[in-house]
Amino acid sequence: MHIFHFGNHSISLSDIRDIKLQYDYQKNEIYVDLELNGGAQMSLNLPDSLVFMEEFIKKIKEDKNV
User: Fold this and answer.
1) How many angstroms separate the CA atoms of 37 and 51, rounded?
2) Using CA atoms, how far apart are residues 52 and 62, in angstroms rounded to an integer?
3) Distance (Å, rounded) from C-alpha 35 to C-alpha 40?
4) DSSP state of 7
5) Which residues contact 5 (CB under 8 A, 6 or more apart)?
6) Is 2 helix (H, G, I), strand (E, B) or coil?
7) What gap in Å lies between CA 1 and CA 47, rounded to an integer?
8) What average pLDDT does this structure show over 39-58?
9) DSSP structure string for 16-36
């Protein structure tokens, strides 16, 4: 089970129900909103959004053998 760590929070990948991305290509910014099991939502700041996306892309590559 993969755990993401954001500030004082630790979230299991299995607890994430959905993600929403907001980005601004010109400003080089990306923000992630997480929807967690039970309906809770968490908006990540820029540094945590980048960590999440790096880990998420890594997991996709591993799962899909890319």
Assistant:
1) 21
2) 15
3) 6
4) T
5) none
6) coil
7) 23
8) 91
9) EEEEEEEEETTTTEEEEEEEE
- CA dihedral (49, 52, 55, 61) in degrees, to 10, reads -80
pLDDT of 11 reads 87
Tally the residues of the chain. Answer: 66
Q: For 11-33, what is the mean pLDDT?
A: 94
Kindly tell me if the per-residue pLDDT of 2 is higher than 80. no
Structure tokens at 49: 């959004």
Phi-psi region for residue 7, left (φ > 0), alpha (ψ -120 to 50) or beta?
Answer: left
State both tokens at 57: 């892309």
- Distance (Å, whole) CA 49 – CA 27: 15
